[in-house]
């Protein structure tokens, strides 16, 4: 059943789940009078998620569940969406230099082209 917004003659606003056939009027939970269906409010709350950056995408064969086609398709869709967003908002672009090492001592902070090697 869908959720509808209602207002009673006393001015109380309330939401009610109702069958489509019964959606025109519902009893107000505050005063018991019949409330009329009104247009629903627009929700502007929430937070946009730009998706994972290139640095957060899997870097190894194991990271892709050994090339799982469904997972690769999901990654491709995420990356296409992220690429379009970066074209529109350049400030979201991350470090595009290639990763040279990402294991061992570079696990926490991968070594990128142009970075000085970390001390052992």
Description:
The protein has 120 residues and is an alpha+beta fold. The protein is 17% helix and 19% strand. It is built from 1 helix and 6 strands. It has one helix spanning 69-88, and strands at 3-7, 13-17, 25-27, 34-38, 99-101, 111-112. It has a 4-stranded antiparallel beta sheet, with no helix packed on it. It has a two-stranded antiparallel ribbon with strand order 5-6. Strand 1 and strand 2 form a beta hairpin. The mean pLDDT is 82.
Features of this protein?
single chain, 120 residues, alpha+beta, two-stranded antiparallel sheet
Write the H/E string, N to C: EEEEHEE
Which structural class best describes the helix and strand composition? alpha+beta
Major β-sheet profile: 4 strands, antiparallel
Total DSSP E strands:
6
Biggest β-sheet: strands ordered side by side in the sheet: 2-1-4-3
Low-confidence regions: none
Task: Report the mean per-residue pLDDT as an integer.
Answer: 82
How much strand content do the residues show?
15-25%
Question: SSE layout and pairings?
Answer:
Layout: E1 3-7, E2 13-17, E3 25-27, E4 34-38, H1 69-88, E5 99-101, E6 111-112
Antiparallel strand pairs: 1-2, 1-4, 3-4, 5-6
Summarize the structure.
The chain is α+β, with helices and mostly antiparallel strands and 120 residues long.
